[in-house]
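As the next step, I selected for study one protein, both as residues and as discrete backbone shape codes, as given directly below:
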Amino acid sequence: MDAGVKTGAVGIVLAGAYGHGRSHLENLRGLTARGLAELVGVCDVREVDAEWLHGLGAPEQARPEGLADLIERTGAEITILCTPINTHADLAVTALRAGSHLLLEKPPASSLAEFERIAAAVRETGLACQIGFQSLGSAAIPALRKLIASGELGEIRGIGVAGAWERPADYFTRSAWSGRRRLDDGQDVVDGALTNPFAHATATALAVAGAEERGSVTSVELELFHANPIEADDTAAARIHLADGQVITVAVTLCATGRTEPYVLVHGSRATARLTYTTDDLDGTVHPRANLLENLIEHVRTGAELLVPAARTGAFMEFLEAVRLAPDPLPISDDHQTVHADRRELPGIRGLTDLSAERLALFSELGAPWAAASDPSTAQGAAHG
């Protein structure tokens, strides 16, 4: 074995154990059992129950302000950062400067400027920063790109994305930042359907288009709405114009009935291709997906290529910046909703998201009555990335 290659379990700190952080604990259990990882520290505003840490030893615990000291005391080589979006930049820079590689949950930051702070810290420290867009670890994406490059689909005329989920009312009150565009102190959060629950949708479409790095997005048309009494969008459509002339549309909602799997639809002059990115299914063939933490461990141990380095999410951050700078979402009146005791539903919304992906159209162009007054070129503005 190469003398420069380390062996043994990699020490890991998890910052943010609640909410989505629980899925990281589950992943860590599997990697720990295989001898690849050791959870040496947990960082959260609340103490984590011992039963949550079953199978993970007795990691040291600390509050977020003690993250740097925790990393230094434990010698953690990797930090998983799964905290509120508005804290990502400060904690990411703290972890990197404390000497730890990083697995940073999506979205990477709440603004393009904060993303650049993280990127600068990566360059300054020479450490790795893997972004937690799990779908970008799927072999389905290179398979689809190969299909596009082969010419089998013909000339590509656009990519459409559709996503329709339901979320209960308490989803938007689960934390102080849920459903917010910015906090009371002015901190950006940008926790809308486009940029958080369906962030993978746009990131996957950009990857399929081969447009992932900064400079890929030239302008974005946006139609942002909310049926729930929140600041951010729970229903939205976007048309992303890319530097190479390609166009991506994204139509998503959290006000559907039930859940269907979101997908990316590539339109060619000869044929279409459909990627259901949550299941890695490309036109009926399910492709394998890499574990991003395991890939980061391999990168730290052997120098294996990082699957989702920060640079690969630059175009997504240009898109997020357009959403951040757009006028606030427009409310959808109760007349256009079915208001349940525990949630709100927009009748016909799933069909509208499908039609958007099929026609590469925005909601206002499809005749949605609650979107009729929306003008993506003025009311929601074309924002530059």
Residues 377-385 have pLDDT under 50 and may be disordered. Residues 10-127 form a domain with the Rossmann fold fold (CATH 3.40.50.720). The longest helix spans residues 112-125. Residues 2 and 302 are 9 Å apart (CA to CA).
